[in-house]
Write a structure and sequence with these properties.
With 438 residues, this protein is an alpha+beta fold. It has helices at residues 45-56, 89-96, 101-120, 176-179, 186-202, 208-218, 230-239, 251-266, 298-302, 414-437; strands at residues 4-5, 9-17, 21-28, 33-40, 69-73, 76-82, 123-124, 133-135, 145-147, 154-155, 166-169, 290-291, 294-295, 338-341. This is non-specific serine/threonine protein kinase.
């Protein structure tokens, strides 16, 4: 049996990890179903505040994956979400490279539908990227995506949790105005949608800085990139305008514009045929001792075959899942979301005593703008370190007591201990003498 958290959630196996915590497949003993549980691993004030913000978000929409409940147990906290097993758009890109325009149009429509529901709650997501857009395992059927990971989202008007000269998000998906320190806004999310769309159509991660320079050099929207249909580029080119005032203002407006050019995209010149894109299960089978209806009795667990513990790969005939991939379930990779320092002003402002401490992942002011490799938050497309155990913080396989084997704290020095002991003996002697005189 796995560890039971707060008497309700049984942690089954790790399926990913983000910047603030590990994500586990868990069995909800109350609702009798499997859920995804994000276990917070850090307890500093900033992380706890972000946790409170994220778990408080309640958006009921078919294309949004928001927290459904939360629990606390001693010094550990978690919140749960629906279990989505089809991986993310990062998986799809790793499996197929560039996607057919008709498939991209379907995915964009769903992404914008979910984002429209998020914006309707006055929430700016701030971390739209392929790894945060999860997919149901629909096979060769119509894909179904869900916007996830609201760890750095915020409602418009809420106080920031970082200093004003820091930017929070994922390098490569920042809107130009974010790099200038502008307040989070819906148009920044829409800019990131444009970058994601370009990635899906070309199979190559866009260079945001180079794109901005191209717009400035051309004095407007440049020519459509290779593999991007002209009708679709009219919409994406507006989304990617460096000036936020020149972009679409709402996700609903983008959906309407895409619908207008949809017929041209859905009927390609090759007769309407389009390669089949399959979204298969990326999590793999349950470990020994667990079945579709939850934990199995101990007798049934003992009868399970050891070879069945290995994760199943893609169905026969499916494309490979990336270079060097074996198709087995892979451990979680760390999220690349973080805080990054903006270019400092000519004269740095004095530090406020109430300012929060800088994020350890922040980039130094003089360092070039970073572009780390693609990672994921929920279900990682490629290898990485396994998620540590939520209680001990140790990697799987390590002894659970190893975290407690630190050296004992040193006591006071002899110069302090001896006088204190002598004083104690004197006080005891005086007390005994006083008692004998009464």
């Amino acid at each position: 049996m796995g560890e039971v958290f707060a008497g309700r959630y049984e942690l089954v196996d790790p399926i990913g990890r983000g910047g603030a915590g590990a994500v586990w497949r868990s069995w909800d003993h109350r609702r009798k179903r499997y859920v995804a549980a994000k276990v917070l691993q850090q307890s500093d004030a900033h992380t706890l505040l972000r946790f409170v913000r994220e778990q408080a978000l309640r958006i009921d929409h078919p294309h949004v994956l928001a927290p459904t409940s939360w629990a606390a147990d001693d010094d550990q906290v978690l919140f749960t979400m629906d279990l989505v097993s089809g991986g993310s758009l990062a998986h799809l890109l790793g499996d197929y490279g560039k996607l057919p325009p008709a498939t991209v149009l379907t995915l964009l429509d769903q992404l914008l539908a979910g984002l429209s529901a998020v914006h309707a709650e006055d929430v700016v997501h701030r971390d739209i990227k392929p790894a945060n857009i999860l997919l149901e395992a629909t096979g060769t059927g119509r894909p179904h995506l869900r916007v996830s990971d609201f760890g750095i989202s915020m409602r418009k008007g809420e106080p920031r949790l970082t200093e004003t000269n820091f930017i929070v998000g994922t390098p490569g998906y920042f809107a130009p105005e974010q790099l200038l320190g502008a307040d989070p806004d819906f148009t920044a999310d829409l800019y990131a949608v444009g970058l994601v769309a370009l990635y899906l159509l070309t199979g190559v991660k866009p260079d945001s800085r180079a794109l901005v320079e191209t717009y400035r050099r051309e004095g407007g929207v440049p020519a459509a990139p290779e593999y991007v249909p002209e009708p679709l580029w009219h919409v994406l080119g507006t989304l990617l305008q460096p000036d936020p005032a020149a972009r679409f203002k709402t996700a609903l407006g983008v959906r309407k514009a895409l619908a207008d050019c949809g017929e041209l995209i859905k009927n390609p010149a090759d007769g309407g045929s389009s390669p089949t894109v399959e979204v298969f299960d990326q999590i793999g089978p349950l470990p020994a001792g667990y079945g579709p209806d939850g934990p199995q009795p101990s007798g049934a667990r003992a009868l399970q075959d050891e070879p069945t513990r290995t994760a199943a790969g893609p169905p026969p005939g499916a494309p490979p899942t990336g270079a060097g991939s074996t198709g087995t379930a892979r451990p979680g990779a760390a999220s690349e979301t973080g805080s990054f320092r903006l270019a400092p002003p000519s004269s740095p402002p004095p530090a406020s005593p109430h300012s929060p401490p800088p994020d350890p992942a922040a980039v130094s002011p003089g360092a070039p703008y970073p572009y780390p490799t693609e990672g994921t938050y929920g279900y990682p497309p490629h290898g990485g370190g396994a998620a540590p155990h939520p209680s001990t913080g140790q990697p799987p396989g390590s002894h659970p007591q190893s975290a407690r084997s630190a050296a004992p704290r040193p006591g006071p020095s002899a110069k302090v201990a001896v006088p204190v002991l002598m004083l104690a003996f004197v006080l005891i002697a005086v007390g005994v003498w006083a008692l004998t005189q009464s």
